[in-house]
Amino acid sequence: MKRLLAFFIISALLFALSACGSDAPSTPLVDVGASPALSGADSVGSDAAAFNAENGKTPAVRVDDTAAAVYNGTEGITLYGAAAYTNTGDCPITIESAVFTFTAGGETFKHSFVPPLAEYAVLMPGETSFLTAWVPQASETALSAGMEVSLSVSLTPRRAEAARTLLLVDRLYLADNYPNFTTLSGRITCAGALGCEMNIIHIGFYDAEGTFLGAWYFTKNTLLEGEESKNFVVQMHGLPLDSLAERANSVSAIGFGFTL
Questions:
Q1: Which of 31, 71, 98, 203 is the most buried (most CB within 10 A)?
Q2: Chunked in runs of 10, what are the mean pLDDT values of the chain (260 residues)?
Q3: CA nearest 167: which of 209, 121, 113?
Q4: Distance CA 199, CA 257 (A)
Q5: Cα distance between residue 67 and residue 116, in whole Å
């Protein structure tokens, strides 16, 4: 919750008038085409009974990839973990709970949590999204920045009972234009006729060999009308992936809108 609160506090800084400018490279690293195609139930305003009748009843999920790191964050030594996961069931799902188990320095560190705004992140069968966690350690920890760490992830899916507002994310640019973080810019489009006041965007990064490098998420209390597009810029503080613009070869993104 502390991480989520921090995102809301800085959210006013996340969107810019344009995805271009001095902070973005002249050509895109990747123009994302990985946002899912629209299904018949991508609007929050869809009838709940019809939504449930059109979909199955067996939630299932597969963890596709994980990435982890130990770094020196703003709260001291911090474990960073990320996972890519796919809905392998026959119905829309949300993630009810997640368990990230880190192994480093001969020790195991288990972190259980409910993903931020999980009730709005509805995945249709076959779609992929991402989860990210930051776990600050006690000051007397034996962990040190840069040490080798592995991660295993267990997810509990739940059948989604309501439709969603899907946000398409494309025109993504990565720029290593600051010493300690990478800048991400791009465009968000609200799919469907209904709009939203807030959103959560999940993004995964892959190298040229298809290796999962890590993930990031952000949110913004900005109004998006139906079919409207807005550009954004995000400074990814706390993402321990050095030279990400140079290392990343492809980016996958998915977003979900909601109104509180």
A1: 203
A2: 44 37 35 37 45 79 98 95 97 97 95 96 96 93 94 97 91 90 93 88 96 95 90 93 94 92
A3: 121
A4: 4
A5: 19
